[in-house]
# Entry
Amino acid sequence: MHKMILSLLLLALSSLSHAALNVFACEPEWAALTQELAGDQASIYTATGALQDPHRVEARPSLIAKARRADLVVCTGAELEMAWLPVVLRESGNANVQPGGEGYFEAASAVHMLEVPTRLDRGDGDVHAQGNPHIQTDARNFLPIAHALAQKLMQRDPANKALYQQRLGAFEQRWRAALARWEKQAAPLKGVAVVVQHKGFPYLSDWLGLHEVAVLEPKPGMEPSASWLAQVLDTLQQHPAKLVLRAAYQSERPSAWIAQRAPIAAVELPFTVGGSVAANDLYSLFDDTIARLLKGLQ
Amino acid sequence: MFRIFGLCSAMLLCQSAYAAGNESAFNPAFSLILSGTYGSLQQDPATPATGFAMNPNPGHDQGFNIGESEMGISANIDPQFRGVATLALDPAGGVSVENAFVQTTSLGDGLNLKFGRFFSGLGYLNEQHAHAWDFTDQPLVYAALWENQLGEDGVQLKWLAPTDLFVELGAEAGKGRGFPGSERAKNGSGAGVVFVHVGDDIGIEQSWRAGLSLHRTRAVERESTDVPDLLGNTVTNQFTGDSRTAGLDLVWKYAPNGNIKERYLKLQGEYFQRTENGDLAYDTAGANVTDSYTVTQSGWYVQGVYQFMPRWRTGLRYDSLDPGIASVGAANSGNIIADYAFKPSRTTVMLDYSPSEFSRIRVQLANDQSRQALSDKQFFVQYIMSLGAHGAHSY
# Structure
């Protein structure tokens, strides 16, 4: 009996010492990237889903409980999580993962930001001082982010430094090959005029050479009214577009309205991992994104 | 090339911040809430709920009112502390300190310590600032038992358990300056609160939080004016004794796909029961008879708020209070009303529209049956606007 208790204790201890790194990922794309870089070494919790508006999430008790035990918080930053993450981290009572701390990682700090506003005024809608936060729509951004995140993982879990190094190398190689493939596939999209529902795609447009001619939201974060949509329709008479893009989490009504009247193809993009049935990891996210764009062109 | 550009812009930013002066670069987050109401009532708002004349009556304002504008300032003080101040600007002039507290940011192990003046963590609604309320006013039970909100001067320690389930324990020691306590000069703690909160998600669409709170304080010569008595007069009474309150709260939220931008439903309910045990001095300006007095008051509300399309929400609330039956000492049995035989209640509906996250306009209708034989149809129009830094809201 004593032996059994002892062996159970030892088992518990050994599982503790081999405990995986607890990672709290704000969005599914960072959970997926962490998975690529850490494999089984990380136990990953994803705070938001692909069908949630990432700007509008609540500081739910479950999120606070998960942040309490996190060794590393991996988020977009650039104020995307401003409505909930500060409360979650503060209430978690976890000193390691506070902003600026050892266990806090912002992907936006590793990439060049687009649409950095020259003036900050709420009259301009929901603008972010550090630039547009939807950096995950440009596949090229994942290389510098992977490098920075791997550094963070090594820092948090130095015992497995070699593993992270090796996985980063493998990811980089595979990702570069995928980038070449995607860019080749997406060649017909270069210069294609598009309308976007929310300013969620400047990085995607920058990468694939899409040309954004109009936005359905009158100001970032504001629902378009019927009269505003009519104005957009007018713009489209002068500057015709081929596609109207929206993320999976957004209401299809405004896109459908424009698509029907313009008439152009409405394309729903997964936006992040889990945003479509096909997009179940980072590779299939971009496979599916490009496939949907190309299909819209037909 | 991008990297070089990024570095340059970062340097430019540094330089411009430097040029603007180092002091302003560290300015705290500053926010201002502008709110106002138009109220139409059929009864005098100064009349308290039946059986609650010895409780506070925050009431309502009639006609046009700018309400309290609220100014908030917050920032990290250093790597260990964060400071928060909320100042309420009284429309009649004057400033009152609503919140002024310091909280720790680096204790770790799930611990959070807060000290200064803060809203107590008891119940669910108590910690929420007025601009985050789903209705123009607080539930009757909060108005009568907590004077809308219990603010405390003191310390709060919270501990979050290292479990997947959210389990939070909290304890507060305070001065007990506001109702149900009373301002008094003494060392040590004048009021204590303990609470536990438990919460979790059910799939990606539902979340909940449940809580249990206990509050204890002591009142010394807590004065109430215009209290009706058995002789048909209104008198001034003073209560001295212990006050113990227990509360239960439950919140459940649902959003299709977990996306609160489109539609969501939020149901909540709270129940409080308070027992006060001590001596009541009857008619201190006249007869001045003191004898024992014990009463158990309680109240509850349930409410639902439904965002049926982006920007539009509607809500329904039912309120109920029970003044209880007091045991009154023999000397006062002919003076003090022990049993009012009436339970105040109210039904409220609201509709609000939020052009953005920073603005909200609301209309509210209430059928107030909180005063016996004084039925009141209440109508409010309210605006709530938020300028400047807009901090994250709690659950």
Summary: The CA atoms of residues 273 and 298 of chain B lie 4 Å apart. Chain B touches chain A through 54 residues (CB under 8 Å).
